[in-house]
């Protein structure tokens, strides 16, 4: 939903800091980060979608194609944002983004521990029912456990969350069917085309 912290989370991952000021996303914003997994350079593109209804119904619809993974975000201090999740999951399913693509659930704003409305147990039950791993984090204080002592506690680090998605994508790289011209041998190659510098995946928040 709008205001759960999607822009802050993607900014924290790509720029390594919490943005001073954010405004409601209009349509879709793109952020990217070059990461390395097992010696392979991978460009991860994060498509930060608008939560506001008026943009969601118009502009966001056009960006469901070419999505390789989905990050569903709710705000742990907003029960309403948690209740909206089934509608977002259905919307993704309507665009062929169901269990066949990596999907994860992220509860954000864990630093606001005194205002929590969505407990971990409830969120975990929901995540299990939808076959998604659950992460709880804070874009504002990514290494906080809500007690202000800077330790990691039970809160997941923003970078670790997106790296988990990247690892999932890497391990699921589709088999590319290639047939040499004139030959009668079919070669199944993993992942990227020959000569391509780096792999690239898009992930929608
Ligand atoms: N305390 C706290 N505030 C946060 C956190 N993440 C985001 N915020 C605040 O929540 C508000 C909304 O954050 P955004 O990242 O713009 O939310 P969004 O989900 O991108 O919203 P839309 O673009 O409208 O869909 C801002 O005032 C942020 O400063 C967090 O982890 N902790």
TrEMBL record:
Keywords, sorted A to Z: GTP-binding, Lipoprotein, Membrane, Nucleotide-binding, Prenylation, Signal
Q: Which SMART domains match?
A: RAB (SM00175), RAN (SM00176), RAS (SM00173), RHO (SM00174)
Instruction: Look up the domain of life of the source.
Output: Eukaryota
For the biological process aspect of GO, one term held by this record is: Rab protein signal transduction
Compartments it resides in: Endomembrane system
Recorded GO molecular functions are: GTP binding; GTPase activity
Indicate the principal place this protein occupies in or around the cell.
membrane
| Renumbered residue ranges of the record's region Disordered | 136-155
Tell me which PANTHER family the record gives. PTHR47978
Q: Which family is this sequence assigned to?
A: Belongs to the small GTPase superfamily. Rab family.
Q: Which NCBIfam families match?
A: small_GTP (TIGR00231)
Q: How is this protein named in the record?
A: Ras-related protein Rab-33B
Q: Which organism is it from?
A: Oncorhynchus tshawytscha (Chinook salmon)
Q: Which gene encodes it?
A: LOC112256231
């Amino acid at each position: 939903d709008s205001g759960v912290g999607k822009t802050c989370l993607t900014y924290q991952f790509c720029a390594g800091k919490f943005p001073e000021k954010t405004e409601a996303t209009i349509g879709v914003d793109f952020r990217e980060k070059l990461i390395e997994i097992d010696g392979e350079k991978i460009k991860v593109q994060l498509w930060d979608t608008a939560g506001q209804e008026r943009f969601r119904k118009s502009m966001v619809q056009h960006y469901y194609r070419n999505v390789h993974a989905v990050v569903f975000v709710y705000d742990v201090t907003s029960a309403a944002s948690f209740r909206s999740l089934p509608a977002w999951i259905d919307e993704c399913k309507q665009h062929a983004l169901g269990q066949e693509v990596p999907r994860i659930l992220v509860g954000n704003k864990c630093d606001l521990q005194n205002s929590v409305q969505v407990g971990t147990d409830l969120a975990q039950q929901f995540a299990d029912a939808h076959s998604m791993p659950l992460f709880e984090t804070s874009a504002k204080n990514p290494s906080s456990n809500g007690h202000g002592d800077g330790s990691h506690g039970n809160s997941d680090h923003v970078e670790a969350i997106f790296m988990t998605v990247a690892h999932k994508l890497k391990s699921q790289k589709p088999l590319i069917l290639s047939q040499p011209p004139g030959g009668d041998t079919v070669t199944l190659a993993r992942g990227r085309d020959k000569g391509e510098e780096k792999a690239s995946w898009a992930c929608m928040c």
